[in-house]
Amino acid sequence: MSVYESDDDSVSEFERLESTLPDHLKRSASSLLEAISNTNLNSSPSTTPAPRENHFQSSWLDSGIPSSRTPSRHHHHHHQHHKKTQHNQLIQKLSRSENGRESSPIPLPRPKFNEEIHKPAMNTKQSSTGVLWVTERANEYGFDNGNPEWANLGQGAPEHGDTVPGSFKRPTSIPIPDHSKEYAPTAGIKELREAVANYYNETYRQDQPSKYTYKNVCIVPGGRAGLTRIASIISDCYLSFFLPDYTAYAEMLSLFKNFSPIPVPLNEVDNYEIHLEIIKNELIRGVSALLTSNPRNPTGKCMKPRQLEKLHRLCRERCLLIMDEFYSHYYYDDNCSGSSISSAKYVQDVNKDPVLILNGLTKAFRLPGWRICWILGPEDYINALSSAGSFLDGGSNSPFQYAAIDFLKPPKVREEMMALQAHFKMKRDYIIERLSKMGFDFSNGKIPNSTFYLWLNLSHLPAKLSNCLGFFHECLHEKVIVVPGFFFLINPQNLSSLEDVIWYNYVRISYGPELHQLVKGMDGIERILYRFGCLPYDLPSSST
Q: According to the UniProt entry, which residue ranges have a biased composition of type Low complexity (predicted)?
């Protein structure tokens, strides 16, 4: 294979990554190639690392150099020749002078894209969520779950083994009593619903006269199923949600037509804080339902208790609050005491306040495969959610529901969460220390106080690395998985006005995996930065 063919494969490989993206995200690769085309166009290819420079800031847009997509009128007759020459230079710059590799070999098996295949009655515009997309792409590069060579820092699940000091042993078997072989009620078995209600009363509502009962609890087969049930029972309203947020919201908000979703982008300058003034403005324009994760995925931020209390006071009797609290126990502001944060503490009347709370065994109890989750709310909402389950998902696994009852005893939960918080805070501090040494900035409140995610800003990195798809592409060659930031643009109605808030300069990094995977992932990112000439220190010879 010639050098040209090898380099051509490098760009083709990157462009194929782009071709798998949803339409509104496909600007990434074209922007990257255009940015490279407008910098050092006439320089000859070099094998030396690229200087520290960010080609994705506005300066290249104003350079006056015509791009391959918008050629100058004065040079129109040279366009075809210029385009071919430019493409050759892009190939060499992308695969050789930028990343230090001779080429980026095509992964085997190659991705299978055939636009001509006819798929009767299938919605071919439905796209994968962010985590699923990155996993599909990584599989094309040889990744599979359990492969020790890979560091999956894209996963949205915590480590699930007996690896957390002080944590109870994960079950290796569960009893299957005869009565559990029947269908469970679509709202869940009464015993588990009572256990959930009791846990919330003991933990958050000891000083409140209004208490949850089993009638305020609906057991659902996973968080997505819970969100889908909620989406099916709300109607004739504007529903606001904030950006960035959980990628699976996009599918839920786009499939159902019984309400109008309204995206509300948050500001990068204040670390994506949800200010109550924003919510006031949403209520003024007629919003009567509000969806948010708290603590927030992907930023790792959490509303303070005082903010939550004011939020409930503001929305009580005016707006349905849908509070996704799956990371409520990954909370590090209370010295890893096992405490957590929940809207349940600020509900005055459990049957009047329009508040739906989602949580489950998935994250806090590190049992994502069990698919046992719950929704708390007023009885009328719970009855409607139960009815929706009869035609949407049929209800949760019955034996696992019975096995989950014992987990929810409040003293046991507190002990478990103390172990969980200490362990995950240690992992958070480890990757922040490693990334800080590599030149990433965590000053001015940028350290997350909850979840197990980092919302990592790439904008200071050179050229390809400052683009989340370019960074993701390089990580694949180091057997590291991250989630490109543009997947957290939840744009169910494909609003063109949202294009400017796509986060091309961010990736989400998960510290959910075990520590040895985090070490491997940080080592891989370190090698990438070294190849691009933007690591503030030298690597040992064995690492290069």
A: 37-51
Beta bridge partners of 264: 242
Place of tokens 């501090």: 429
Q: Are residues 153 and 189 in the same domain?
A: no
> Is the domain of 384 the same as that of 487?
no
Which tens digits make up the pLDDT trace of 315-360?
998 999 999 999 999 999 999 999 999 999 999 999 999 999 999 9
Nearest Cα to Cα of residue 134 among 485, 435, 400 = 485
Tell me, yes or no, whether 130 and 199 share the same domain. no
Distance of alpha carbon 185 from alpha carbon 189, whole angstroms: 6
The verdict on 406 and 303 lying in the same domain is yes
How many Cα atoms sit within 13 Å of 128 on the Cβ side? 12
Say how far apart CA 117 and CA 175 lie, in whole Å: 47
CA distance 90 to 11: 8
Q: 34 lies in which domain range?
A: 3-157+458-543
Question: What span, in angstroms and rounded, lies between the C-alpha atoms of 386 and 247?
Answer: 25
How is residue 21 annotated by DSSP? Answer: S
509 near 488, Cβ under 8 Å?
no
Which tokens in the block code for residue 310? 């004011």
Q: Are 340 and 305 in contact (CB under 8 A)?
A: no
β-strand 483-484 against 217-220: which pairing, if any?
Answer: unpaired
Q: Can you list the positions of beta strands (E) in 439-498?
A: 453-457, 480-481, 483-484
Q: 71-90 pLDDT, tens per residue?
A: 344 444 555 556 556 555 55
Cα(410)–Cα(416) distance, integer angstroms? 10
Split into its structural domains, the chain has a count of 2
Name the residue with tokens 């000439």.
Answer: 533
CATH number for the domain that contains residue 321:
3.40.640.10
User: CA 266, CA 252: separation in Å to the nearest integer?
Assistant: 20
Q: Are residues 269 and 310 in the same domain?
A: yes
Backbone angles phi, psi at 41, to 5 degrees: -65, -35
